[in-house]
Amino acid sequence: MCTNNTCNGKKNILINFTLRSLLLLLYSLLNVSVLQADETSSINETTISYETADTELTVSCFLTNSEAVIVFLPSVYAPFEEQESLAKEIAGKSLSTCFSHVFTDLFLPVESSYYRDIPLDHMLSLLTNIQRTTDKAVFLVAHGSGNKVAYRLASLVIQKGGQKNSALSGIILLSPNLLGDTPQPGKDQQYMSLVDQKTLPVFIFQPAYSPHHWHLDTLIGKIKKSGTHVRYQRLPDVRDGYALREDRTPKEQQLREQAAVLFNQAIQQLSGIQ
Amino acid sequence: MKIIHIFLVVLVFAVSPIQAAELKPYTGTMHASEFILKDMQGKTHRLSGYRGKVVLVNFWATWCPPCIEELPSLQRLLELYEGKDFTILTIDVGEPAELIRPFLSQVGVNDLTVLLDADGTTHKDWNIYVFPTNFLLDQSGKIRYAAVGALNWDEQNVIDTINKLLE
Predict the structure, then answer these.
(1) Which residue, A4, A162, A230, B30, is the most exposed by fewest CB within 10 angstroms?
(2) pTM given for the model
(3) What ipTM did this prediction achieve?
């Protein structure tokens, strides 16, 4: 038993409920298809190389339909397999990545002092091959002392007179150590001389829990003074190399999962400069 | 070929020794800058208040593995010199007491004085670029020895050096 008003009310509630259910179903279906698209977004795995008379430099690439590709120089602080796996993980979120095997290709001991033995001309030729093969803008990513190699390569591109459509469009430095020498206690530290020269656009990600965090302003000031375009982002509550640490905190894990978003933001900012 | 590459990388990882730091005579130009910092209990410490003692100033943070590695031997060093004119002032850079206190309990280090350099000012004044960095000051407050990187503070040469400063 119901009055017209209450029945109309019930009918309205029923219609509302049906409409909402349909909308919810449609929303769920759309969401599922978006998720499926993400999970199944095709990754083309390939190896790109540069051969010389006595060696071959290689990168493992995980290519998607993104306009840019980030090339990771290996860090000496984590197993290479883990780093390559992270590169693939990022590609799974639609950003093309490559991982350089430069230490294994050149049989270099996995220590930071051996970055200096990486032949820059050959690395630049490898980056050129990546750019030509993929037809994407190439951004080099490095960590710690590897940043010196990235900086030297960026400088080499400028020396060779190119920026637009060149082998390298910019560099992304993770917690950069650009000091010229090993720091001595109580002495003023000098940055490598290249920091005083204009180079390709630079983006810096700086974890807060790092000695470099406290000197970031000085470094940014120095890079800007050289005429180089530089952008940066401080990453609060995370340690150096957080994405590859075995003992990642929940915050570090969360930020690792956002790596593709962070790199995309950096690429956008660097691309906007050019 | 790739298997050989991987094997070599694994081998290099396996045999790379941990680089040990060394307490060396101080050659820097920087003098021991005065600092006024609070410890985790809120007590204020001035470096100048420790004149007359040999002081080991240690810059560290909980996120720094080599710093953690040397903490137990720092505590043993403090115990060794109990009742003598020697003290250790550790300075944590940029972390709150709420984070440091449970961390120290976890690693079983409870007797060290931990000063809080919340905004990194003291760390900048002392030109710190590497954690840990240690300075050994004589009784007049002059820096006499320093080390970048983790040390084993139980080493006899370290104890001899401190004894010499206490003579």
Answers:
(1) A4
(2) 0.81
(3) 0.76
